[in-house]
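Throughout our pipeline, every protein is held as a single compact record rather than as scattered files. Nothing more is needed to write down the fold, since each code stands for a local backbone conformation. The record that follows is passed on verbatim for readers who wish to inspect the format.
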Amino acid sequence: MAASLDLVFSALADPTRRAILALLLEDDMAVTDVAEPFEMSLAAISKHLGVLAEAGLINRDRRGRVTWCQLEPEGLREASVWMQGFGQMEGIDLDAFERFLALELGAPGTAPEGSESAPEG
């Protein structure tokens, strides 16, 4: 269990990998589509995807010439259970996790709940 937890937390420690997970919350994506928003090579993105896959956070599926990536929500379960053992964390709510990632990455239109500002004018 410790080895797989190490892989998950190590994968989540990198901001690029967290951003990739945020992209995959929306839908399955081809590797080239995952790479598009990042200013790095396809090879570098592929390495990040390999780390996420090894940690069990995503699945990669080859369909013809295209490799597709899919979020694997069960990959966070073991980490969630481990954190719950401290009595300080609740189970992972993937909707809340998506909101957190959107806020963390500064996605447009993602103000925290209850903090909508009035339009200027």
Observations:
- The chain is about 50% helix and 10% strand.
- The mean pLDDT is 83.
- The beta strands are 29-30, 58-63, 66-71.
